[in-house]
Amino acid sequence: MPVKRPATLQDVADLAGVSRGAASFALTDRTGVSAATRERVRAAAAELGYRPNPTARNLRAARTGIIVVYLPSIATTLGYYTEAAFGMVDEALEAGLLVTLLPRPASGRPLPRIDADGVIAIDPVAGDPVLEQLLAPGLPVVSGEAMPAEYRAVDGEVRSDHAAAARALLDHFAEHGARAPAIIVPEMFSGWSDEISQAYRDWCAERGVRERIETVSVEGLTDSTIAATRKLLGDADPADAIISLTEGSVLNVITSATEYGRTVGADLLVAAAVDSPALRYTEPSVTAIDLHPRAFGRECMRVMREVLDSRSPGERPRRRDVPIDVVFRDSTRGRGGSGARA
Prior knowledge:
The strands form two sheets. Strands 2-1-3-4-5-11 form a six-stranded parallel beta sheet, sandwiched between helices. The chain has helices spanning 9-16, 20-27, 35-48, 54-60, 79-94, 129-135, 162-175, 191-207, 221-234, 247-257, 293-310; strands spanning 66-71, 98-103, 118-122, 141-144, 156-159, 181-186, 213-216, 241-244, 269-272, 287-290, 318-321, 325-327. The protein has eleven helices and twelve strands. 39% of the residues lie in helices and 16% in strands. The longest helix has 18 residues, at 293-310. The protein is of the alpha/beta class.
């Protein structure tokens, strides 16, 4: 009895009534075919049980099918980066791509040779020797948040409006009675933290409010956050509202506040610039910016796929914006506020 051969791309194209090229475009989500054609081709592929061969496709395109995702050194300790990484992996798997996660080595040791089709750098920082090595071969690069100006131009960029979210938080503080807001930021530069810091400075300047900015060490985040909080609350003119930039450090702010007899959510408003599930269940629950990390990661990988499919010399970088939201909880309700969710 003859064995039924696997369906081919040509079989799919014939059943859908399109060319082989159109079928390929439809199945790989490339532009150039209509939505109706895309659905017809997918239906034909499902009917025939067609499964693309990523190895053969990569050989024809002279690709490895591998994307390097470069993460900051603190990625292993913060839930945001885990969620963003899973978003990229999910999107890559659907496209038949593999992801190599590369957290920055703490020692900055040279990297071994890496064969890949492209690099996605999340929260890139200036003066990073590992990032310099990754960018040197000239592979396509997509940046998750702004790439520092010292590096070469990226082929794609995914951003979120952190400045607008920070201003929304500061306005909320003011509406709930705060007159001396402060921020606690990590010492390493990144486009994300720089946007928030600048938005804070601009907000203070517009209202004639004294700036209160404390910088903390990423490596010793717990101890340095506690020290920063003590400084802000022990000042002769103490802070009455604090934005802490990471989901972990905001918990240290809350525990340190009790040393000064402050009640979070009443005479001290507290928020995090990165949300996490844990912040919903603290007492009080913590207001935070939801960065939608999985959606952000998926968008980074989508942009990378577009770059790989259509990269040409002199092409303008592809840009995507991922919306983010402020989730208002009990830690910023204030003495007369409602703590309503937005």
